[in-house]
Design a protein that fits this description.
Layout (H helix, E strand, L loop, with lengths): L22 E6 L2 H12 L10 E5 L5 E6 L9 E5 L2 H13 L24 E5 L5 E5 L7
Parallel strand pairs: 1-3, 4-6
Antiparallel strand pairs: 2-3, 5-6
């Protein structure tokens, strides 16, 4: 397969036996601002541009690929991140440091508070484009 100039390297064949999320596009008015915001809060780094995308690698084989749409409205989405317990306080401190309000609930009615769902800790906050982001130290227990 010839290389596409926008994506110059051919991928290795998949060896997975299960369906896995690999990446998702996150729409942003300013892809760099939004990617750097998320990376700063989570203590990650922004990757090199990949075609029109600016990736944030979450470390579990999944990337959020920020795609810029300056002239169209952005429909806010929800993105939830399972984070290590020992890194949660640092994330809350970074939100405080940049003046971003976090909430204990997804509707943003409990400002400056965290939740303790399923024996863990969690918080919700908006990114620069209004996406409702969530950090949690325990996954939800599903029926």
């Amino acid at each position: 397969m010839p290389d596409n100039p926008q994506y110059p390297h051919a991928a290795e064949p998949s060896t997975t036996t299960t369906v896995q999320l690999n990446h998702t596009a996150v729409l942003a008015r300013d892809r760099r601002l939004s990617a750097e915001f998320l990376a700063a809060v989570l203590g990650l780094e922004v990757g090199a541009p990949f075609g029109p995308f600016l990736p944030v690698d979450l470390g579990n084989g999944v990337t959020l690929d920020y795609y810029e749409m300056r002239d169209e409205p952005i429909q806010p989405q929800h993105y939830a991140f399972l984070v290590p317990e020992e890194r949660f306080d640092g994330m809350i401190a970074r939100l405080d440091a940049v003046g971003v309000t976090y909430y204990a609930d997804p509707r943003h009615t409990e400002p400056g508070r965290i939740n303790r769902l399923f024996g863990g800790r969690g918080a919700y906050f908006d990114d620069p484009d209004g996406h409702n982001l969530e950090i949690m130290t325990r996954p939800y227990v599903r029926p």
